[in-house]
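ok trying again, last paste got cut off:
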Amino acid sequence: MRLDDERESSNVDDERGATGSGGGGIGGGGGFGGRGVRIGGIGTVVVVLGALYFGIDPRLVLSILNGGGPAQTQSAGPSSAPPDTGDGRGQTAPTRTAAAGDDDQKRFVSRVLASTEDVWGNQFRQLGKSYQQPTLVLFTGGIRSGCGFAQTAVGPFYCPADHKVYLDLGFFRELQDKLGAGGDFARAYVVAHEVGHHVQSQLGIMDQVDQARAQMSDSGRNALSVKVELQADCFAGVWAKQADEAKHILQTGDVEQGLNAAAAVGDDRLQRETRGTVEPDSFTHGSSAQRVRWFRRGLDSGDLHQCDTFKAEQL
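nice, full thing came through this time. structure:
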């Protein structure tokens, strides 16, 4: 990707080097992709897509990262973790133990975030709306978010309660080494997927989803979660298309990296690798084929109106 000459976003909050622990909140898991905690896309890319918010079981991802053993998890919805009061009744407040240094990874994600700001700012203006930029929080070990306390194992996630994307840069190593999805564009896809959830929040889609979920069974909620995650994949594709048309950021092989990343975090592939069987009714992010299809749809069209997974006759 050609991002070396691009600006860096001012909306990056570097909390790396802070240490802390919490009782309750978001437990170990992994993946990337969702609002809440599981990164469902790329970002959802490992298995992170919607863990926090949708209560998705992150053990599928964690078992891959740990080489197969089950993990104990807790799930929590937005704002489920008590605020830290400093008196022992809430979570232990993180303490800064090391200076958060500037590095290539931070600069890269900052430039990707800046690119999403440019693209979605322009898209919202065309809709007659104002785009409120999200903050990207970098952390290591664990972080207290508006959606509760999350550990690194949860993976990248978007919290709709505070409008922030949370990312431990170590996730990129797992994405490459454990899931075979490396490269700059694969990493950019993770960030763009999580920002896609912020776009959903800004457009009011998340509020509509919340209302619908309250009246659904578990299987219905899972199916709705898949639509949310696939739309975020499509929005990630829209960003890539629009950014490339504006500044020619894509190079040979980048698209393939993105498609590979989308396929790597498909529910069917993760379940097959961890369980040996596939249970479509339990999908929360979509199959590899679906994730690739919707990411490609956004990438080919560059049109957010082509990303309406909720009205699609076939996902």
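cool. The two ends are 29 Å apart (CA to CA). Residues 127 and 152 are 36 Å apart (CA to CA).
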